[in-house]
Structures are given as structure tokens and as C-alpha cells.
Specification:
Structural class: alpha+beta
Distance between the termini: 25 Å
Strand order of the largest sheet: 2-3-1-4
Shape: elongated
Order of helices and strands: EHEEHEH
Helix content: 25-40%
Number of helices: 3
Number of strands: 4
Radius of gyration: 20 Å
Strand content: 35-45%
Largest sheet: 4 strands, antiparallel
């Protein structure tokens, strides 16, 4: 069984199609991901923003960020299919699971350091907070 990893997909949609084009592209991405054995954990539509530079005579675009969990084949299939989309200005897929593990480990180390310092001062330990997703 392929190992499941987390990826972040960021894409910029041309403003010509409006909200319908963004929804259609999101549906297509969802089908590609589920077809490759993955799932979309979170979708964040940032809305229309000004681009840093002009892309194909467009000065604005709709930014969408999606957190995807799945095997590496998901990235290959997404990249292959998103390259041929006409209303898609740019896309980028980045693996983020290692960064999330590092952040979680640093958070745990920081909490244990605080607990040791509180115990050395004779203070009660801080109650553990429930994990946030």
C-alpha cells in the first residue's frame, strides 16, 4: 500500500469565468484526487487578488488553497491534468507533511520545557489542551 502524505495545492484561476469556473475546477480537482486514492482535507478560497505580475494579460486572479492527503500518484495526476486547463493561470503542489511533523515536535518540546520549569518552581503542570485540526 502506498504511503499517504499531505500536500498543499495552490492554484490561481483567471477572473474571466467567475465563481462558476472556480467551482468547476474544484470539482475536477476533487475527482482527480479521489480517483488517485486521496482525499481533500481542507479547501480555502482566498478570493480575487491582484497578481504580482501580469500573466497572459490578466492582472488579477482567484486564489484557492487545498490541503490534500494521498499517495504520490495524486501529485503526478494533478500536475498532468492541471497543465492543460485554459482558465488556470498557475498551480503549485508542495509536500507539507514533514513540515507539520517538525512543527508538532517543536510544540511538544516547548511544552515539555515549560512543564519542567513549572515543576522546578513548584507550580502545578499546565493541563494538556486537546489537539486542534
Amino acid at each position: 500500500m502506498p504511503e499517504s502524505r499531505q500536500y498543499e495545492l495552490v492554484y490561481v484561476v483567471a477572473p474571466d469565468g467567475g465563481e462558476d469556473a472556480v467551482n468547476a475546477l474544484h470539482t475536477e480537482v476533487e475527482e482527480i484526487v479521489s480517483g488517485a486514492g486521496g482525499r481533500i482535507e481542507k479547501t480555502d478560497n482566498w478570493g480575487s487578488r491582484r497578481l504580482a505580475y501580469e500573466i497572459g494579460k490578466h492582472r488579477e486572479g482567484t486564489y484557492v488553497v487545498e490541503l490534500i492527503e494521498g499517495p504520490g500518484e495524486v501529485v503526478n495526476e494533478l500536475d498532468r491534468k492541471l497543465k492543460v486547463r485554459e482558465n488556470l493561470l498557475r498551480h503549485l503542489v508542495v509536500r507539507v507533511d514533514e513540515d507539520l511533523k517538525k512543527a508538532q515536535r517543536a510544540r511538544g518540546n516547548r511544552l515539555s520545557r515549560v512543564q519542567r520549569r513549572r515543576a522546578a518552581r513548584g507550580l502545578p503542570p499546565i493541563p494538556a489542551a486537546p489537539p486542534t485540526d
